[in-house]
Amino acid sequence: MIDQTIDEIEEMQTHSSSIVAVKAAEALRSLTDDDFPTVEEYVRALDRNSSALRRAKPSHASLYETQRQIITTVSEADLDTVEQAQALTEEVIDEVVETVESAKQAAAERAVELLEDGSTLLTHDYSTTVLRTFELAVDAGYELTVYITEGRPRYLGRKTARTLAELEGIDTHLIVDNASGHFLPECDRVIVGMDSVVDGFLHNRIGTYPITATAADVGVPVTAVGASAKIPEGGFQFENEFRPVSEVMREPAEGFTIENPNYDATPVELLDSIVTDEGVRRYD
């Protein structure tokens, strides 16, 4: 099951990082049904499989943090039997999954406080936390206009647009990525998700940096919203992913090279704020 999950995670390009983290945590449950001669053997197997899951998406801080929490909790516990170790694994997986979901909700609740009824917003990519923010705004009676960039080359913005179009109170507009500069002067705020914040840079879906830089130039505040687990305190090293060139162009590239990075790095100084379940970080 874990090998299958690793393959699925490597191919999960239309899901947010929180969904990936939950899927990886749940995959470790399969080890709680297996037989192991000693606690040490079980912990080694748990650590080995967790490492493989983390390698499937080395760009995801939330995946790293949730897996680290599971392994650290079990390996540092003073356990006498394999059954105890497996029971503890089940418990910490439940805690991790609940924390991921509750952190998303808490971050969205804080982000809504930065929005105002009647605002015009722009968002990029597909973020379940950003979507939850808009849902909560609608529940509060807000009416919003939202511009969504298409999110080439996998067009995740289209997925966001279809979701927002179903919400009463949101006037939804899908635009091509390069049109963001045209519409930004009309916007009151840009709100995006985040994959990780490491060493003073917001890592998010490719295209976030130019949107943020343009927003800063025209005086539109940019807010990144996500779980605090995406701002790791240490140990995590961000690694970008380069996707298949066929996503950019299907026919052969003759005489030129196609590059397809998954993420870019935005200096946090260009942001107005980062909102997590733990609070709001300002960058004035």
UniProtKB/TrEMBL annotation:
Instruction: Please give the coiled-coil regions recorded for this protein.
Output: none
Q: What InterPro entries does the entry give?
A: IF-2B-related, IF_2B-like_C, M1Pi_N, NagB/RpiA_transferase-like
Which branch of life, at top level? Archaea
GO terms, biological process: L-methionine salvage from methylthioadenosine
Identify a single GO molecular function assigned to this protein: S-methyl-5-thioribose-1-phosphate isomerase activity
List the keywords (alphabetical): Initiation factor, Protein biosynthesis
Q: Which family is this protein grouped under?
A: Belongs to the eIF-2B alpha/beta/delta subunits family.
Q: Which PANTHER family match?
A: METHYLTHIORIBOSE-1-PHOSPHATE ISOMERASE, RIBOSE 1,5-BISPHOSPHATE ISOMERASE
> What's the protein called, per UniProt?
Translation initiation factor 2B subunit, eIF-2Balpha/beta/delta family
Gene that codes for this? gCD2
